[in-house]
Amino acid sequence: MTRMASRVAQLTGEGALAVFSRAKELEKQGRSIIHLELGEPDFHPAAPVVDAVRNAVASGRDRYCATRGIPALREEITHYLARTRRLSTKPEQVLVAPGCKMALSLAMMALIEPGDEVLYPDPGFPIYPSFTRGLGAKAVPFGLREPNNFQPDLKEIASKITTNTRVLIFNSPNNPTGTVYDQQAVQGIAALAEKHDLWLITDEIYARMVFSGDYYSVWTLPGMPERTVIIDGFSKSFAMTGWRLGYAVAPVQVIDAMDLLVLNTFTCAAEFTQVAAIEALRDSTNAVDAMVAEYKLRRDLFVPSLVKIPGFRCHVPEGAFYAWVNIEDTGLSAEEVQRILLEEAGVAAIAGAAFGAEGKNYIRFSLVSARHLLEEALDRIHRVSVKWRPVSVRL
């Protein structure tokens, strides 16, 4: 039998999708499931965005278009980043892709050679190490640990940089911890990148979802626009997950390389979704702020009650829409807690090892269900906690 390319064996999937599949099976059996496993907002795009895509299709905006994205959207992205993140960017530094994963993949293909080493956060988005390995490079984790409030340890990162290190990937607010990297961490990462001549890939898909203060992007620091790739998109902040639209902001030479990859793969993102994305960025109804305010309310409802459940502890997330819960004191594995929650309580959540070795003793909940469903989930979790409650009693 003919063989498959070896790179495929280096790739891994996403644990959230496996739990989602099992949850859907249980629903088909008539079970009531509260879905807190996927990072998919339960909101939908604002009405003007829906109107814009409808009008774009009706007016014939369904043809091939510019490989880097339509010029009007690329320009609007620069205005949006200036307004919301105080970033100075130019349209020629922007490339639009069908989803953030594709933008991330293009950037990694453009920057990473076989044999390179790539630093990435653990816990973190599982595609970072997976695609790194698929490119023939070595994925090197740096820990985000509870004693350090899930901030990156700059000394650890520095100790793991070698002559083969080429790229450092980070994500703030972080999925799954909800941590927003502080200024010391961001400045320290920038200093290491400059000292060791590294590329930075900063995944800013949750940048609008910060519950206090302003977002601090590494792009704003001196010398960083020349060595940084920003990955962002429309799935989270604009609740446009199924529209598959993301973008990268990078030095022009990186965009040129990514554009050549576009020409050899998908040709262009759909024109009508790009037209509607312009309306999303302008956010005439303030839908983003309203959505973020709702996520904050959900956080403030869910987390204080969650930590009252025996065996659970959880740092208050500063951004995104996740609760990262330490379950070590239950005396059970995270996989067993995940199983009990889904099979017996009807609450779908993700065992933390899906996000890396540092997630071994954690469960991730996505706050993507309405508040009344979160309250019901808390009740269900509390009822099944009898499965582990005696273990966590401390005399």
Topology:
Layout: H1 6-9, H2 15-28, E1 34-35, H3 47-58, H4 71-85, E2 94-97, H5 100-111, E3 117-122, H6 127-134, E4 138-143, H7 154-160, E5 165-171, H8 183-196, E6 199-203, E7 228-233, E8 246-249, H9 252-263, H10 271-282, H11 287-306, E9 313-314, E10 322-326, H12 334-345, E11 347-348, E12 350-351, E13 362-366, H13 371-384
Parallel strand pairs: 1-11, 3-4, 3-5, 5-6, 6-7
Antiparallel strand pairs: 2-8, 7-8, 9-10, 10-13, 12-13
Helix pairs in contact: 3-10, 4-10, 5-9, 11-13, 12-13
Structure in words:
The chain is of the alpha/beta class. Helices cover 39% and strands 14% of the residues. It is built from 13 helices and 13 strands. The protein has helices at 6-9, 15-28, 47-58, 71-85, 100-111, 127-134, 154-160, 183-196, 252-263, 271-282, 287-306, 334-345, 371-384, and strands at residues 34-35, 94-97, 117-122, 138-143, 165-171, 199-203, 228-233, 246-249, 313-314, 322-326, 347-348, 350-351, 362-366. Strands 2-8-7-6-5-3-4 form a seven-stranded mixed sheet, sandwiched between helices. It has a four-stranded antiparallel sheet with strand order 9-10-13-12. Strands 1-11 form a two-stranded parallel sheet. Helix 5 (100-111) crosses helix 9 (252-263). The termini are far apart.
